[in-house]
Amino acid sequence: MERLLVSACLLGQKVRYNATDAVGAWTRADLFGHWQAEGRLLAFCPELAGGFPVPRPPAEIAGGAGAEVLAGAAEVIEQGGKPVTQFFVLGAHRALMEAQRLGIRAAILKEGSPSCGVHLLYQGDFSGRMKAGRGVTTELLERHGIRVFSEQEAELAAAFVADLERQTSASHRPLS
Prior knowledge:
It is built from six helices and eight strands, in the order E-H-E-H-E-H-E-H-E-E-E-H-E-H. By secondary structure, it is α/β, with parallel strands linked by helices.
């Protein structure tokens, strides 16, 4: 049975910068309930794993996206300008280590987050505008072969997991 790493805020944990969760329509879906009942979902917050408290100031990636942060060419800053890149990088590495330890090959992460954004991030200037890009954790997981989906892509994640399970099942069939 494939397990999924899931942003803890999507599972109802109040771990976001403003001490809220990000529970939405996907957590009310049959798929979510089914996965939860099966014990497939591992809640993980890279920002807490990186050492942040709750609540904390909002943060955005300035000068790029997760790839540039990991390359040292961009930084994550809190509102007010304080650099906090090291906490985001540490949290991303801890997420990767936990996923690898458990053999996790798929994740559902919170869109828009500087850690977990899958397709979109905030602009980096605290204007509320979005830009295309991956968060630090999403970038690191994808680089290591862990497929990351946003919470809006739960059905795609389900298809991916089903395909992984079919492949695993086929590779364990006895030869005749």
